[in-house]
Predict the structure of Peptidase A2 domain-containing protein.
Amino acid sequence: MTSYPYQKDSRGNLYPIILFQVEFKKTIAKTSALIDSGASISIFREDVAKQLGLVIDQGTQTLLGGVGGRIKGYVHNLELKIAGKNIIAPVVFSYEYSVSFNLLGRSGIFENFKITFDEKNLVVKLQ
């Protein structure tokens, strides 16, 4: 089991944000993301695609809807190294995604781990 203490966002709020690696064509980027049980798929900012040399619109186009409205994005299956485990998961990149952090959604992530949100102690545990 790997425990991650909650991290502060730019406003000082604490969230279950973890550090991990993303690989695309042998290029590795270290990044972080909020573990979001309300997101059906992972969504990463454009800067991660740039670090990886990934051309966003070469993925499969999709439309995502949520609290903030609809955005157009492109799905790429990427290798992620999280809590010492290598997994392949779909990740959406969007030029329209302007939130301050990446999101790790359920697809490809949650079925690979038992995830415990320990709000009392401000840690998230991946097993």
Helices lie at 46-52. Residues 46-52 form the longest helix (7 residues). The chain has a mean pLDDT of 93.
